[in-house]
Protein 1
Amino acid sequence: MQDHAELIARAKAWLAEDPDPETREDLAKLVDAAPGTPAVLDDLAARFAGTLQFGTAGLRGELGAGPMRMNRSVVIRAAAGLAAYLKAKGQAGGLVVVGYDARYKSADFARDTAAVMTGAGLRAAVLPRPLPTPVLAFAIRHLGAVAGVEVTASHNPPRDNGYKVYLGDGSQIVPPADAEIAAEIAAVRALDDVPRPETGWETLGEDVLEAYLARTDAVLAPGSPRGARTVYTAMHGVGKETLLAAFARAGFPEPVLVAEQAEPDPDFPTVAFPNPEEPGAMDLAFATARAARPDLVIANDPDADRCAVAVPVGDGALRMLRGDEVGALLAAHLVRRGVAPDGPRTFAESIVSSSLLGRIAEKAGLGYEETLTGFKWIARVDGLRYGYEEALGYCVDPDGVRDKDGITAALLISELASELKEEGRTLLDLLDDLAVEHGLHATDQLSVRVRDLSLIAAAMRRLRERQPERLAGLAVTAAEDLAEGTATLPPTDGLRYTLDGARVIVRPSGTEPKLKCYLEVVVPVAGHAELPRAREKATELLTALKRDLAEAAGI
């Protein structure tokens, strides 16, 4: 009973300073119903089990009252911590740019952030309306800001929201900044101690979006073909207006919209998860494409920093390209166009992405670097010309946006499709050429979503304690515990297995309750005639890898 009384007391203390009438009302109902109601007590216990942790992904979590949920109280504390960090770094009076998507509470969280920055003596500027995350990343560098905040949960479920922090170089925070900001957040006591004036910050005009759109000109080659026809879905997010404007500016045919998903809707009513990679998310786009018969299908995730691509394969059928395939196609396109000898010349990717990028860079005489997972690492590579990650993220203009950008990636893949179309070829034909030139690099993923996070820890522990000796009949020739770091990578929670002709990486997701296993097999190909058999062999190996790895991990 004492534990229950303490829990209710903590909830009432939170309630007393909650500035949001909605979460205050919800929490008050829970407090009133809690005595003698186990389900409500369990809900309260989950909300007050700790505090939502601020890390290199910033904050992300379910909306609701309490320190383990995303709400105005948590955001105000996060903003106050960020402001204190910036002032401690000698950036008092600097500009902080704030962007936001169209999720529930995003505009409120953006406004609270601007108020806190203003109250702390910094200057704050809020983007004019819900806009893609890459517009915020661009605006930081364009306006000379000391930091930026994007309120978004990207492709998470409707009940979630998040808080992504960038520093003045326009890239996301990495250690030790995350821990230093977290310490400042923890030092915030009562919300009444955080000044939050009702005015004093700037709402930016459309000129910042115009500057971003003008920058997209740098992505395309002058005079390049622009004839590819596209079906486009914004996945109920904020990408539509910006992408249409960019395509019109570039001279591409106006994309055919997936009408049911074109406008922002925080309920994401037509998809179980608003992520183009999730089963069923592209069904409406494919239905639209079967009627419109485009050259390619493009999808952004809700904050438009990711870009998915699908292509027709005949008789109304379409094939979704894997992120690794699009990553290789864009790299090959940049090589075909020519990389300036006096400009950035390094291609980079995270360790979970296909090794094909390294083969392409090596043959082209370009630099190549592997990083930890996430664009917070990729964007920091010296001399970066192009970076990508298998989860549909592509950085094609690092000088403009030092993060993944689903708008400019869509432009570049459309330019490539247009060039190939003029040659009577397709993206699939170029993928075949790359397989013959470098070997067939086939990738897949074993992803397990859990409700109980301890299951992920148990799987990682099992693999560490019982290292598999063979997977899919292939000998494990090297096993690395990435938690110990490597010669080129700082420590991270993950395992990497090198096999004869294959590679496996296992890691917990940084943003979702998932255990993610990244699989790659490389099958030599002597010529185009051998491709069908090579693909069959790759599929067999990937299927066996999934089976054996699931058994080894106990998932």
Note: The domain at 226-320 is CATH 3.40.120.10 (Alpha-D-Glucose-1,6-Bisphosphate; Chain A, domain 3).
Protein 2
Amino acid sequence: MLSSLNIHNYALIENLQIDFQSGFSVITGETGAGKSIMLGALGILLGNRADNTAITPGAKRCIVEATFSQLDDRAAPFFEENDLDFDDGECIIRRELTDAGKSRAFINDTPVSLAMLKELGSTLIDIHSQHQNLLLNNTDFQMNVLDSVAGDDTTLAAYRAEYEQYQAAQRELQQLEHDVEENREKLDYIEFQHHELESAYLTDGEQEELEQEQLILENAESIKQAVYDARQTIGDTAEKIHAASRSLDKIAALLPTAAQLTERLDSCAIELDDIEQTLTAHDTSYDPQRLEAVNERLDTIYSLQKKYHKANVAELLTLQEQLEVQLNNIVNHEEIIAEKRKQCDTLHRKALTTAGQLSTARREAAAKVEKELTARLQPLGMPHVSFVVELTPLDELGSNGQERVRFLFSANKSMPPRSLEKIASGGEIARVMLTLKAMLSAHKQMPTIIFDEIDTGVSGRMANEMATVMQQCASESHAQVISITHNPQIAARGDHHYRIYKEDSAHSATTHIQLLNPDQRVEEIAKMLSGSSVSEAAISNARNLLRRENTEI
């Protein structure tokens, strides 16, 4: 349940701190006092989008913080999956906004994303505002009602996963068929490209070798002359070295170092002989036929590189492999597409089986919804109400299964059930939504439900009956129910009564909230009965109303 709410510098609220109680509570106050502002602050705490315009003018930062207590073990998996602290069934969530437009969110003092905050918030509290009555006409909302009553979340999650896999496979099949058709139109061109590259017999590294050979052949005469000159010089030098070696050998007995020097000269002579032999092997002759062949081969490679916008032979070989894959896909397209269709059929049958399980659960849930809502609506001024959940099978699977749901309603014997938006009045829609929320709270076990003026357009006995529904919702579902109301009958039924009010100063207006004691409560309800001028008669009526509702005064 929502134990406490702290708001700092949000719109008209400079500093508001309030502790909430379990059971059924009511919040009253004049129009414009700040009830919607308080709900707006609670909304951003639960992950709604907000910007720095929400901050009180002149403030640097806005902080909204709430403490939720008495959380049961159903909340534990969320905290475990997201590695968050979860002690003693209590959770503190906080949202901070700065005037620079930055936003931060925390769960038990751990920074979290807004998506995570919203996920947790949806399990902690349900805020029902007047515009949400329009959800009654939304087929997704109606389907969610059925699924909540059916309570088979595992099957629903399995179906949605299977349906998405089936849809993904269908998209892949369509793309494959499109690609094959597109490539079939280009088949001749692809075959020509592949044949042209394949018949060139390209090899990686070939271009570099040919370019080196081309350079040698084009400069064959210069190379030959340089090699000849070098060999001549080496030959002459070798003869002189040999002569020097013989001269030193003659004085080896007289000069101690002569023998070593002779060995060194002999080594030099051997090295020169080896160099001369190597140059002889590189004695290149001009070969015009080989040069022509090399030039033609390089022209072929350069032409292919330019044509296909590739930098080297390696890239041309990669292109050749890609074209080969495309050709194989085109040639084997029937086999590939048949395999993909087989996969789609398998996934479709699997999703169809799970959809059938959903349909069975929904038909059972539809019967429960019809029976329970009819029973709940009859005391709310609809003794002859008829509520029908219409399930229409679909020809194909959809994101929510294989049926469409529609709520049909009639408050009169003579009027057959029709769509809510076509037949129900505003007050009737409010009562239907209230009973739906009460029913869902029992099935979903929502800890906290806030009704924002759900009683609009309802007065007198019907308001009293709606209050009974909210009281029962709090007691039977063990939920914390908070009703924001302008109706004195509903205000008198609350276990706890809060008043929200605004104080004006010379430069600003600020919103406050207080838990009323019995005397303050009498005065507040008297104002609701008679207006700002409270008479003794109004006080007496307020006391009588509170006594009649068995409320302590």
Note: The radius of gyration is 45 Å.
